[in-house]
Specification:
It contains five helices and seven strands, in the order E-H-E-E-E-H-E-E-H-E-H-H. With 180 residues, it is of the alpha/beta class. The chain has one domain: Peptidyl-tRNA hydrolase (Rossmann fold).
Length: 180
């Protein structure tokens, strides 16, 4: 069994913000792989969907805690389903990667991402896969504080770029399952 976690903040005001790139990716996975609809489950404080990829059971979640507390929902789900950390994929935004790019890494520090750090703290390990979606500023003269920048909505042009990247990531996730 695998667990795929999309990080973001709950609530209508955060939809399509840069910090919710992980939520956008999970939403796309739910649609593209024909999972059951995401359902809110209060015992986990997360929206959860289950399905199969290449005969492997997969649980998709969007924690409904705020980003900095994502580890609470992840820990509750991993304990309940007895999921090993090496079977976890976390998808999240990354300010240090240019918009339109992504990186896959494993067993790395949080890089300052508070949602990832929360997961590391609650699981007691960093031994999981991360798919980091670039949201980096292309105009380096732009001096918006980080906290404000990540909570801004994507522009129409940026959204087109993010949707393309998320489609590529969905393909990468399927490849990850094929390689096992």
């Amino acid at each position: 069994m695998k667990l795929i976690i999309g990080l973001g903040n709950p609530g209508e005001e955060y939809k399509k913000t840069r910090h919710n790139a992980g939520f956008l990716a999970v939403d796309k996975l739910v649609l593209s792989i024909k999972y059951q609809v995401l359902n809110a489950q209060s015992k986990f404080n997360a929206e959860i969907s289950q399905g199969m990829i290449n005969n492997e059971k997969v649980i998709l979640i969007k924690p409904q805690t705020f980003m900095n507390e994502s580890g609470k929902a992840v820990k509750a789900i991993t304990d309940y389903y007895k999921i090993q950390t090496e079977d976890i994929i976390v998808i999240h935004d990354d300010l240090d990667i240019p918009l339109g790019e992504y990186k896959i890494s494993k067993n790395k520090n949080s890089g300052g991402h508070k949602g990832v750090q929360s997961i590391i703290d609650h699981l007691g390990t960093k031994d999981f896969t991360r798919i980091r979606i670039g949201i980096g500023v292309q105009d380096l003269s732009c001096k918006i504080p980080t906290e404000k920048f990540v909570l801004e909505k994507f522009s129409k042009d940026e959204m087109e770029i993010i949707e393309k990247v998320i489609n590529e990531i969905c393909g990468e996730i399927v490849k990850l399952f094929l390689l096992k």
